[in-house]
Specification:
Blueprint: H1 8-33, H2 41-68, E1 71-72, E2 76-77, H3 107-123, H4 135-158, H5 163-167, H6 175-193, H7 209-228, H8 236-264, H9 269-283, H10 292-308, H11 312-316, H12 324-342, H13 362-392, H14 405-410, E3 450-457, H15 464-473, E4 476-485, E5 492-496, E6 499-503, E7 507-516, H16 520-531, E8 536-541
Antiparallel strand pairs: 1-2, 3-7, 3-8, 4-7, 5-6
Length: 553
Amino acid sequence: MPATGVEPGDTAWVLTCAALVLFMTPGLALFYAGMVRTRTTLVMLQQNIIPLGVVSIVWILLGYALAFGNDQGGIIGDLELFGLHGARDTSPAPAFHIVSGAITIPTLAFVAYQMMFAIITPALITGATADRLKFGGWVAFVAVWSLLVYSPIAHWLWGVGGWLARLGAQDWAGGMVVHASAGAAVLAVLLVIGRRRGWPHAGSLPHNLPLTIAGAGILWFGWFGFNAGDGLQANDVAAQALLNTHIAAAAGMIVWLIIEKSIDGHATVLGAVTGAVAGLATITPAAGYVTTLSALLIGALAGLVCHLALRLKFTFRFDDALDVVAVHFVGGVLGTLLVGFFASRAVNPVSADGLLTGGGPGLLGDQAVALLSVVVFSFCLTWLIATGVQKTIGLRADPADEHNLDQVQQGMDAYHLDGPAALPGTARPQGTSVAPAPVTAAKALPTGRVQLVTCMIDPQHLRADELEQAMLDAGASTIVLSDAHARTPSRRPQIYRGLRREQEFPDRLRVEVLVDADGTAAVLAALDRLAGTRDRYVQEVQQAIVDRDEPAR
């Protein structure tokens, strides 16, 4: 591209937006990983991170050429730009929704920006397929899918000459190219790999919601680049798209919380970020075409409709583990159709007016045709790709391994924590001159009658220092704490996105105390005072003595 045609401000803005969209992929990894089991956390993270490598290489070699190369009948680009050969000397193919005027950024900036969209789109699928994918099969699927499904759809809507763009369909930042195509792919992949063992009765609860909230924050932040950079210019339309993005997310969050509070009795932080992501997905196809008030309404509708869609997986019996269909697919479909109602030439002169802004039903009809075409194409071709991978190298992990995929596929665990180490106890500021409190010595193991007192305690009712001192005062010679999960008379209910789960085996601490028989009553009384539990047992024990002079047999 001639140097005189480059605007530094526009270039800097698009490169910044590319970095923001890239940041969304690890954000999505954290968002999903916090909602799966502890023993499949690393696998979920890897399934989201691997497209950064696989799709980047595929995009440079073939993906960009197929999506934005010279048009071939409105269906696909040619291979003249294979390996980006000669790309530096060409102007970037303007996306259909380009704002106006000449392209003012280098071609390679456009390549990089579009590459980030290609990376995150297949990663969305992993939320639906949690606990079920083989690593090698997933890598092969991502590479083939990004070429045969994503690149053609991107050409149809964003490439010069794409048949849906010529039809008049509008997709600002990926309601169809990203969310609808990935959502349709989810349905096809789930049809191939099937449900998790025991679903829906054996569904797991999120293991680390703070991780999910952190991921959602990164997604929200990165979405500004996702939506505000698509005009390829740092101008008023970019500002409008950024503001629309934020307002829609806020509206989706509030509506979701209102519904959640009225139905489940709790407005949860998971519901807040889920509603926000639903608003972000729904505003994506409309962000550069609608007013701020329209964005507010679109976000509110996203919170309402996507929340209602949560029940779809139980109605139609597909195991969408983390509700990708309800949030991303339904959000992308809804937002695409709402463009036909709210798009306004006053916001973006390239846009057509929608049904509610004086343009009649024409744009809405174009959106519906484009949406149906994308969904059918993505579903059918994804099913063929997933079936081919499954029958060759395998896409579905062994169902017997799905509860421990981190060890099977990674050879390691995500966490090495234990409950007793996390108990609150005595603490003081580092470097203080206060003398440490004396530690009471444990009594020597008695030579007479020794009894083992065992007790299950709710860790919420316990302080480590209080327990230690009470047991020592009662005459304990040995105190052991360990993690346990115990069946209790009263179940602890958990509500996760409208699904009520009774926690059959709540977390407990097992306390084991060795004590002289004369001190057993004092130990039991101390445990009763500290934890109020009656779940206690006493048994006679004998110390094991090894005669080191006797040869081993």
